[in-house]
Amino acid sequence: MSEDARGLGAPKGTRDILPPESWGWQDVLRLAMDTFAAAGYAPIETPAFEHTEVFERGVGATSEVVGKQMYTFRDRGNRSLTLRPEGTAPVMRAVLEHNLHRGPLPVKLSYAGPMFRQERPQKGRYRQFFQVGIEAIGSDDPRVDAEIIEVGSRFYRAAGVETRLLLNSIGHLDPSCRQGYVKLLVGYLEDNESSLAPEDRERIQTNPLRTFDSKEATTKTVMEEAPLISDHLCSACRGHFEAVTGLLAEVGVPFTLEPRLVRGLDYYTRTAFEWVASGLGSQDAVGGGGRYDGLSESLGGPPLPGIGIAPGLDRIMLARSAAVAPRSPVQVYVVAVGEAAKPASFGLATSLRAAGVGTELDLMGRSIKGQMKDAARSGARWAAILGDDEISSGTVMLKDLDSGEQETMPVEQLRSRVGS
Ligand code: HAM
């Protein structure tokens, strides 16, 4: 029934992920977590909601995410809680709460889960979306930046997504570095205020760096001539960035320097980056990340540098080449010929499953033709056909659904035959 017919559908900006797309979804999710695990990132689960303060202090009150997009509510105990709009501040909160930073460093963690932002829905932009991510906390060594970025790039390649990596350094919060640059930028924006789009004028004082992200043509023209952070980094940040780009070049990770890349969350320092894919329209960032050397302190923790990435699964699925067919986990479909074969086919399917062979069988009392059709739907490679003759002789007829070839064999042989 359509949403109109029932009057009840998934809430605006949310969606259901249905088969067969959901198979591909799980494949990509598994691939991400395996890729992260192979680089030593251990899974962490944090709650889907946090105290609102975690995001206000962590992500930053001047960011659009915190200012305009959070699902914040009071629970029955009158606590202000927020559905997580991102995963980094919660991971840092958990690290500090459980003193993981007192153990071996860096703390390397991976996560996967739904995030919530009340944005205007459009292609590739949802109010509930799914991120996978990794965070490395406790080291400011440029090799950590390079590792995180390399792992991310390898994941996109393995997932069949062609991306371009946009890379920048936005310096650290210090008068000798970003603070000095921001003063310069504010001066430039004030001088050109009348040429900025009205909504961008407000940003001059609240979040001047974000004017680089404006979609307004007039602002874009102004920003073409704006001073760039890359020309005003302190020598320590410049050295750090040169080390990161050098390491990436050494291991063959392609990147494009993008001096106007600023990112939307306030916690970023130094290395900042995004992976973009073509064919997605304006929502083309399939993932992003960066360093957040001040986040721990914003949450009341000790100085503790960190860096991470969060690929967005929804956009990855949109960008993934259509040629990547989802894999069906069902290998065998058991076909029952006649009433008497029904219990035996149920028994055979059960024993195959117990042996780790993905198996389906008819549950609707279909004709043989109907069962063969359902076998094709299941994605199974083989049909195992059981009738009176087979049951009495302890055999099964195995049909290869790709080639059409069939052979009769003792039931005990079936498992090794389809497992090969
Ligand atoms: P972010 O750039 O806000 O970064 O989000 C990362 C990715 O999540 C985006 O590139 C995009 O693929 C996906 N995404 C974000 N919003 C939406 C949406 N409304 N609909 C669909 N997909 C979306 C972060 O969240 C940081 N926590 C990343 C990070 C990890 N930085 C350091 N560590």
Low-confidence stretches: none
Largest sheet, order of strands side by side? 1-5-6-11-10-9-7-8
Oligomer: single chain
Molecular shape? elongated
Strand content: 15-25%
Q: Could you give a short account of the major beta sheet?
A: 8 strands, mixed
Strands, total number:
16
Tell me what you see in this structure.
The protein is an alpha+beta fold and 420 residues long. It folds into 2 domains: 3-177 and 233-319, BirA Bifunctional Protein, domain 2 (2-Layer Sandwich), CATH 3.30.930; 332-418, Rossmann fold. Helix content is 38%, strand content 21%. The protein has an 8-stranded mixed β-sheet with strand order 1-5-6-11-10-9-7-8, sandwiched between helices. Strands 13-12-14-15-16 form a 5-stranded mixed β-sheet, with helices on both faces. Strands 2-4-3 form a 3-stranded antiparallel β-sheet. A hairpin with a 5-residue loop joins strand 3 (72-74) and strand 4 (80-83). The longest helix is centred in the first third of the chain and has 18 residues, at 21-38. The two termini are 42 Å apart. Bound molecules: histidyl-adenosine monophosphate (HAM). Histidyl-adenosine monophosphate binds next to strand 6, strand 10, strand 11 and helix 13.
Characteristic terms for this protein:
21% strand, binds histidyl-adenosine monophosphate, alpha+beta, eight-stranded mixed sheet, elongated, 16 strands, BirA Bifunctional Protein, domain 2
